[in-house]
Each structure stands twice: as structure tokens, then as C-alpha cells.
Amino acid sequence: MIIYERKSYLSEFVEDSMDFLTSAECAEKWNVSQRRVAIYCKEGRIEGAVLRARMWMIPADAEKPEDPRRVRKMECEKK
Asked: What does pTM read for this prediction?
């Protein structure tokens, strides 16, 4: 008789690397919405962010990327 051990894909990933934050934690840290963090991740603007089991895992030392909407607005005000 063969018994298969069932492991959670996400828990295995998190156990191996405890220096990751969820998008909700980063949103609170950076004072932006969770959706904005997910957009940053999807656009590839956060280095090291990975999507695991429908949850973005972001390195704890990741820098908040510049918001392109704010940069564009500042450029328009300078003219």
C-alpha cells in the first residue's frame, strides 16, 4: 500500500523563505492599497516578487516602486 504525503504548495514555499511579505503586508508598509501592490508585481516593478497559489510573495527588503501616475503629474506641473 502506497501512502502519499500531501503538502501545501504555499506552506512549503513560505517555510523555505521566511523573508517574504504578502501583498497585504506590503500595502500596509508602503501606505498604498493591496491592489496597487498587486499591479506593481504584475508589471514586474518589484524585483523578486513571485506569485504562489494566487498570492504575491514579496521580498521583505523590496523597495516601493515609483508610482507612474505621480511622476507624470509632477512632470506636467513643471511645465
From this structure: 0.66
